[in-house]
Specification:
single chain, about 300 residues, Trna Endonuclease, Chain: A, domain 1, 2 domains, five-stranded mixed sheet, three-stranded antiparallel sheet, 13 helices
Length: about 300
């Protein structure tokens, strides 16, 4: 039988303590030996058809990455870092999700990114039977919260993939996304990437009507690190003014500073700012760069069926 998810934490972290780079396949093979798994164990599948063992290993490393105790060298390749070695030095053999939340502020923030509303039940630390807020959640609540975590992890991974592409690829990606969202896709030449030598700070243009009387101008910045500041937004606004434009979308793989977010242009110019994680959430929503792995149906009683 495949052990519970958290049972994988300590053995895997201890195994990679040597500082070498490990693939998910390497770790899967290690766990098969470590837990003395049988052929029947290895044949266990989750609903999507994926190996249950591989699923456990994959999520263990995803959690370790979010807790910042391993580095993701590239897709599916991991290496322990100084934080991971520091955690092992504490001698905590019984690692758990709750311990990672206490140890790593980054992991705690990751688990809270689902932005779920606080219900009266979850505000209650424990009832008379000692049940916590988690114990009182319905199965649908738990499914929804975990769906948000899965989506957040996918967005993080997708962002790394986008950052590894060329700036020109990113420009085309941004235009494709905006068309999928319903902008400029109703007619030929409704959305296009500008030529690099003549863009004047504009990377793409979207026509909102067939004659091009109303246009949205796009700037796409593929930055690996750092924040987009007020200066970059002001330059974009200047480029819009030079085009006589009133609408702009600024999309980046990084993030925006507080000053950039609070900047309000004059002359009735409206701009929308989309950072890396927001971009990837839109990509997931509109199925760009991703595919459906598993679809779950939540069913309920059809009361009409039982009416005579």
């Amino acid at each position: 039988m495949i052990p519970a998810f958290e049972k994988f934490f300590y053995p895997i972290l201890k195994h990679i303590e040597d500082g070498k780079q490990y693939s998910l396949k390497d770790l899967r093979n290690f766990c098969a030996d470590h837990f003395s798994l049988t052929e029947d164990d290895l044949a266990e599948k989750i609903k999507s058809g994926q190996s249950r063992l591989y699923d456990r290993v994959q999520w263990t490393m995803a959690y370790f990455y979010q807790a910042e105790i391993v580095d993701r060298i590239k897709r599916g390749i991991y290496q322990i870092n100084s934080n991971g070695k520091d955690l092992l030095a504490k001698g905590i053999a019984d690692l758990s999700v709750n311990y990672l939340k206490e140890y790593s502020p980054a992991f705690l923030a990751f688990t809270q990114k689902s932005n779920k509303p606080v219900t009266p039940q979850s505000q209650t630390p424990a009832n008379n039977n000692g049940e916590t807020g988690d114990d009182l959640k319905t199965p649908i609540d738990i499914i929804d919260e975990n769906f948000q975590i899965v989506t957040q992890e996918l967005a993080e991974e997708l962002l790394q993939q986008v950052k590894s592409q060329s700036p020109k690829f990113f420009e085309h990606l941004v235009i494709e996304l905006l068309v999928k969202m319903g902008y400029g896709g109703q007619f030929d030449d409704g959305a296009f990437v500008t030529q690099a030598s003549h863009d004047e700070g504009i990377d793409g243009i979207i026509k909102e009507d067939k004659l091009g009387l109303d246009k949205i101008y796009v700037q796409a910045k593929r930055w690996d690190t750092g924040n987009i500041g007020r200066k970059e937004i002001q330059s974009f606004v200047g480029a819009l003014s030079g085009q006589g434009a009133s609408k702009g979308v600024f999309i980046t793989t990084s993030s925006f500073s507080k000053e950039a977010r609070t900047f309000r242009p004059q002359n009735n110019i409206k701009i929308v700012l989309i950072d890396g994680i927001e971009l990837c959430r839109y990509m997931i929503e509109y199925n760009i760069g991703v595919s459906v792995k598993t679809a779950y149906e939540i069913k309920r009683i059809d009361s009409d069926y039982f009416e005579e």
